[in-house]
Amino acid sequence: MKARKFQLYKDEVTASMMKEFGYSNIMEVPKLEKIIINTCMSEAIQNVKLLHAAAKEITLISGQKTVITKARKSVSNFKLREGMPLGAKVTLRRDKMWEFFDRLTSVAIPRIRDFRGINPKGFDGRGNYSMGILEQLIFPELKFDDIKKVNGMNITFVTSAKTDAEGRALLKHLGMPFKESK
What we know:
The chain has a single domain (4-22, 30-159, 169-174), classed as Ribosomal protein L5 (50s Ribosomal Protein L5, Chain: A). The chain has 182 residues and is an alpha+beta fold. 32% of the residues lie in helices and 18% in strands. The chain is built from 4 helices and 5 strands, in the order H-E-H-E-E-H-E-E-H. It is globular and about 55 Å long. The longest helix is centred in the N-terminal third of the chain and has 18 residues, at 4-21.
């Protein structure tokens, strides 16, 4: 069975986007290509166990094994050497991407304290959107007692849209709660 958001995309979003932007072919409609979840911890320089715990948490959130990222350059002021583990990331595609997007928009984002909407200024000019989350505790997969350190993460939504307006419309139709501009 396909994810709910994928069914929503196929059934309703493609038709409304074709009407809104005047596409002549269904293949012109932008689609969500991948979601990248990334975290970086400066504390990992002293304590690598914190990084492995954060990687395990992202694995639980995404349902896919994370990759430990390493430093590209040495920076002596930060006591950082080339090749030291520094962060963790995962790239989600297809079914896992749609499942994660559904859980993010319907369960996790409503659990953010004092939530007034997501900042619509995170677009890059090509229809891709990046957002930051301050704490991973908004995801119900994680138990509060198992968290060693509260840390945030960056989530990037890569779309096939050519402009920011098309990308924003796609994510808005899929249920992303953007903050209304005044």
